[in-house]
Amino acid sequence: MTDTTVIIALVIILICHLTAISIGYxxxxxxxxxxxxxxxxxIGMLIFWVVDTVNIKTxxxxxxxxxxxxxEVCVLLCAISSIAKFYNKTFVNVINYIGFWxxxxxxxxxxxxxxxxxxxxxx
Length: 123
Prior knowledge:
mainly alpha
């Protein structure tokens, strides 16, 4: 996998996030559209993490990894509960919005990193 492929994937994911927020704003259902994007993004990230972890022979969990996985599971649970008609709960909305904007910031950060540094090979 080359860095150009990763940059294209990051741009597509970022466009999906920004499209979801604009469609949600236009239809007055921002919390619901953010919940769907969060659920898809977290499920995809967890699948990637599981596949990547299985390929490592000895894996040592770090504190950062536990923190990120715990936060992503929390975002997934809030997204699922928001999709299941609990989108009017303040706590669920706050976690969904925080998760959404942290994902957007992470995507922008990864995009800046990938554009700023030339990598020969990612794996």
